[in-house]
Amino acid sequence: WNSFYTFSDEVLRPYEMLCDCTRRGNNPETPRENRYFCDPVYNNRLVFLQKFGHIPFRTSWDISHINEHPNTLVNDPQNVSVAQIMNWTEAVENFVCKMTPKPDYFIFNSGWWDDEEFSQPAVQEAMIRALGNCNIISV
Fold this sequence. Notes:
By secondary structure, the chain is of the alpha/beta class. The protein is 24% helix and 24% strand. The protein contains 4 helices and 8 strands; from the N terminus they run αββββββαβααβ. It has helices spanning 2-11, 88-94, 116-119, 121-133, and strands at residues 16-22, 32-39, 44-49, 57-59, 72-74, 84-86, 105-106, 137-138. The strands form 3 sheets. The chain has a 4-stranded mixed sheet, with helices on one face. It has a two-stranded antiparallel sheet with strand order 4-6. A two-stranded parallel sheet has the order 7-8. The longest helix is centred in the C-terminal third of the chain and has 13 residues, at 121-133. The relative contact order is 0.16. The mean pLDDT is 78.
């Protein structure tokens, strides 16, 4: 996987500014793929955060200045420290809502990594409420 992350990071440059992407061996409990894209000419930013089903959301990013580390690829398991591990709602409240700059929109997609928690209406409503509390539009 790390070869894929390195390759995709190179292909997506200069727009991919950060790739917090790693998998430690074949351990399914440690994957992480978070990417930050920026096009300064058109003032567009896109953040891709991956939560692998029932596995807690993981990141090593310092969200207080996410856009100040251009072209950084973090994929060597020896150099990665997981700063935050969260469930769906915690990821929204304690990560997405505190990002600087903060996103205007948040798109939900369980994709291949569906889990029972995400399909629960109460969890979805809590996530939408948390996004609304920090003025992010959910899609």
